[in-house]
Amino acid sequence: METRDIQDVVNWAKTTDIAELAYRRGGEGLSLELESASGRVPEAAFPPCRLIPVLSPGVGLLRWSALGSARKAEQGVSVRAGQTLALLEAGRSVVEITATASGRIEAVAAEEGRALDYGQPVLFLAPGP
Q: What is the helix (H) or strand (E) element at residue 13, kind and residue range?
């Protein structure tokens, strides 16, 4: 690609809300990340959050407990780091979803039997002993 062509692409991208752009043709290509994208919000615009997310370790269905067992992850309940809070069913395998820190369950962000994506918040903890 010639410099003129790249500059035309950059000028056009600045008129959109595109934050990142990648183009490849044959053996040539470019990748751009635009600092001034209108859709981008600076990190400093968000206040710091005291809540700690507990994220899904994979893709599957959420179960709050094994069949016949009581649910342990309820809003307001205190938990310890490493404690099993829920289960993720992925085919025939079951993966434990554990507390990433000690604290109190502040908010539940997922529903029993619903599909979870990798990294999706399951619940949020308020740090504490």
A: helix 3-14
Angle ∠(56,62,63) on CA atoms, nearest 5: 130
| Number of Cβ atoms within 10 Å of the Cβ of 51 | 14
Q: Residue 124 CB: number of other CB atoms within 10 A?
A: 19
Q: What is the pTM of this model?
A: 0.62
Structural domains present in the chain: 3-41 (no CATH), 52-127 (2.40.50.100)
Angle in degrees, CA 71, 72, 73, rounded to 5 = 100
pLDDT, tens digit (0-9, with 9 covering 90-100), for 25-66:
777 777 878 765 445 555 565 677 889 999 999 999 999 998
Partnered with residue 82 across adjacent β-strands are none
